[in-house]
Amino acid sequence: MKDPGNMPNVESSPLIRVENIVAHYDSLEVLHNLTFDVTPRAITVIMGVSGCGKSTLLKLLIGLKKPTSGNIYVDGKNLVKMSRKELDTFRKRIGVLFQGGALFNSMTVGENIAVPLRVHTKLSEETIRIMCQLKLEMVGLAGFEDFMPSQLSGGMRKRAGLARALAMDPEILFFDEPSSGLDPITSAGLDNLILKLKSAFGMTIVVVTHELESAFTIADQLIVMDKGEILAYGTPEEVKKSTNQRVRQFLERQPEEKYSKDSQFLESLLSKA
Amino acid sequence: MKVSLRQVNDGISVIDLEGDFDLYSSPKAREVLLQLAKDKVPAVIVNLDKVGYMDSSGIATLIEALRALDKHGGRLILAGLNAKTMEVIKLARLEKVFEIRDNEEQAIASLKS
Known about the structure:
The structure holds 2 protein chains of 2 kinds.
Chain A: E1 16-25, E2 28-38, E3 43-48, H1 54-61, E4 69-74, E5 77-78, H2 84-92, E6 94-97, H3 109-120, H4 125-138, H5 154-165, E7 172-176, H6 184-201, E8 204-209, H7 212-218, E9 221-226, E10 229-234, H8 236-240, H9 245-251, H10 262-272
Parallel strand pairs in A: 3-8, 3-9, 6-7, 7-8
Antiparallel strand pairs in A: 1-2, 1-4, 4-5, 9-10
Helix pairs in contact in A: 3-4, 3-5, 4-5
Chain B: E1 2-8, E2 12-21, H1 26-38, E3 43-54, H2 56-70, E4 75-79, H3 83-91, E5 99-101, H4 104-112
Helix pairs in contact in B: 1-2
């Protein structure tokens, strides 16, 4: 197991390099000096308990939030310092599956998937229509192109969101908690699809999750975060061997110890009175 | 992507594709394929031997060509797929929709049989 901040033993040069990233919400520092690489054509899973900073990290990686300091290089180009035009170009290369699917509610599922293709390419309407059908087939929603998002269950909305994220055949695909709200069978199917996307299209995939089973099923490299820091970083086998107490607690699903002793709790209440 | 068209014996058209068959290059292949369908050619072989990467726009283009040729009873055969392009076809569950042969020679042989 490598120390946090060191690079895992990967042969290819990174597609994304995160260097000394610090991020704040107002005056609260939520990410503390993070450094890691995302390997091309591999699956990087960022995991940790709720509130550990992994979703904030995802926002930084897709250019939705700027760090307070540090750099994020994509193919050697600094995402943090990109102009709006450069950011637009970068975003054409990526697909993002947000937690709720983030579909446009006023459009059908098919129209949702077609939007990026109509905006960013010169493909014919017929090609776009077939591509939408292919994406829906891939995510197990064949025949749902004329449905409105409100007619779908939560899990189906998520899969439709994935079909839209896949619309442009992105080079880099980001997932924010892909398994949340899905039943175990659908969740396992999604893991399988993520693996196939990497294999068939050579996609670079970054997944943020707290689902241990899913993480160890799909990951080529794992990052375990807690309280805005990287506690473990390496291959799944390396992370499994981590001796870090907090990592062990997370991997072994040990509950949090009681917040404080009764006397400390009463003291804290009295001090705020 | 480079798209070139040639005729082989017995009215078989071969399209050689070279490069990435993706969002930006597939309209070029589409134009050639749909023109062949419009001309009602009896058989088209798409030689993918030199295609390193194919995305879903490439597959969509091939499906559109298959449908267009089928309208007049024309055939479309895919040849020379590498492991990656074959995997993309399989991911879309289309390996039984397309006629697929290992190479151009086999594709021509199956058209003659």
